[in-house]
From TrEMBL:
Residues 1-19 form the signal peptide. Gene3D superfamilies: Periplasmic binding protein-like II. It comes from Paenibacillus monticola. InterPro entries: Bact_solute-bd_prot1 (IPR050490), SBP (IPR006059). This is Extracellular solute-binding protein. Keywords: Signal.
Amino acid sequence: MKRMTTSILCTFLAATLLAGCGSNNNTGNAGSGEGDKAVTEKAKSVTLKMFIAQPRFKEHYDKYIADFVAKEKADKNIDVTVQLEMPTADNASQILKTRLASNDAPDIFAIHAVNEIPSYYKAGYLEDLTSQPFAAKLLDSVKPSVTTTDGKVVALPLETLTWGYLYNKTIFSENGLTPPTTLTEMKAVVEKLKANKITPFVLSYKESWIPQLVLPLAVGGMMNTKDPEFVNKMNKDAASFTEMKSAIFDVFDLINSNGTEKATEVGGDDGAAVFAAGKGAMWLMGPWYAETILKSNPDLDFGVAPLPINDDPNATLINLSASTSLAVSPTSKNKDVALDFLNYVLDDEASNAFFQSLKFNPVATIHTYESYPWINDAMTYVKAGKSVQDPAMPQAVKDEVGKGLQAYYAGQLSQDEVLKALDKAWKSFNKVNK
């Protein structure tokens, strides 16, 4: 009995001591400052899903995202895990549309400002970002591209573009050439290059979005000179791409018959390497590939010029556009963190280095870095009135023309079959978006 009493007493004393320790700990916390409480508070964990179709920039995004993750932890004690998905441009649009339609939206996703904002906003896929701090930093020339017709900012622009085609300045200079202003002049440039055993054009059609670049250049030039209402008429099923046949195919045929071989086996990155190596004097491509080109050849001197589509110099124009832009899903469960990231993209201190590393144009008042030489080339045309706003064509039409021109290059479709497919794609778009 005495042994049992001793055992019970020991158990009671142990429990009392443990309770006392717990009581002392609680008292200590209650008496500590608010800062100590923040330190001991468990961090919130968030997984942020991003969908950005720019795989060639993965290294840059990874670094910037890592900096954001560190900042979010330091500022808000949030542990952020980012799942970054970077499909190729050929597949991205369809993958994203499927996700959005099936209620599996990424928290942050990239869209084309001109081509996709109207339909995505109408479908309710875009969060209103008007009140976010970054919106007040956007340049006046850029802000309209991510603003809806009812005045809401719904995306953050990453890329603003001034483009036509790229040309090797060294090759042009050594051969006494200047960028042509008409199709006839372009033919003369081609013949002189061939006479000097230089391949005029780099061809890279493995990815369908590359050959489709001829479409906005052709349509923009024709709308500036012959048919300013073309897009409006197409939206009403009152026009046809047959009206653009010569503008599209005359220059496209000239490029194809004077270019590098095996075009359907060469994608954007490979095309950049070929152009960087000087194996073609011109490339139907925009300056968004500058970073990739210079990675292959840092010393390459290249410029941007408008592509002639006919013999009217007034139709030879630089295309002005805003393309890749970041949006936030209204259904995101981590919207606050997603918005933090968007604002960090235009952070007063970090943004300059990020945009500069990507070789993107300045888009905000905080961007103070010097413009690149090829951008200055393009802006010379813009300042001279030789530019046109990117025609607002449905993304489905651009997807269709890319596939159609691939097939046309391979001899599988005629010009008329390509144009018929484009008309059909636009009419289908109109039915869904009435």
